[in-house]
Amino acid sequence: MAAALLATKSNGFIKVRSAGSAPAGSINAVVVEALHEIGIDIGKVFPKPMTDEIVRAADVVITMGCGDACPIYPGKRYEDWEVEDPAGKNIDAVRTIRDDIERRVVRLIEDLRPRESTKA
């Protein structure tokens, strides 16, 4: 959800890669539905494993509870978002998780967007 929301909300300003330390075999159908409700189609997306290559290429790495399974490299910005896992949850619970992630994504975009110069 975070990758789809970030890619959509940043309008291409941020290049997004999504990967997991233990990816599932498919995207959760309730997550697909919750994102579809707000106009985001992830029907063709599939889970991918996190690799050293992906982390090395990133400037910012957002983790969601992967702990020691996530590679750590000096010079990278890391944020761990403590977000409830949508697995096994009903649509109402997944909407709440989606909205929580969306708020975090908006804050991240604001933080990463270059500031306007204030030269006089």
Give the gist of this structure:
By secondary structure, the protein is mainly α. The chain has 4 helices and 2 strands; from the N terminus they run αααββα.
Features:
4 helices; mainly alpha; Rossmann fold; two-stranded parallel sheet; 120 residues
Write down the domain tally: 1
Counting DSSP E segments of at least 2 residues, the number of strands comes to 2
Strand adjacency order, main sheet: 1-2
Question: According to CATH, what is the class?
Answer: Alpha Beta
The helix content, as a percent range, equals 25-40%
What sequence of helices (H) and strands (E) makes up the elements?
A: HHHEEH
Biggest pleated sheet: 2 strands, parallel
Q: What is the overall number of helices?
A: 4
Which structural class fits the helix and strand makeup?
Answer: mainly alpha
> Which runs of at least 5 residues are low in confidence (pLDDT < 50)?
none
The assigned CATH architecture is 3-Layer(aba) Sandwich
What radius of gyration results from the CA coordinates? 15 Å
Task: Classify the fold: give the CATH topology.
Answer: Rossmann fold
- Give the overall average pLDDT: 88
- Anisotropy-based shape: globular
Which range does the strand content fall in?
5-15%
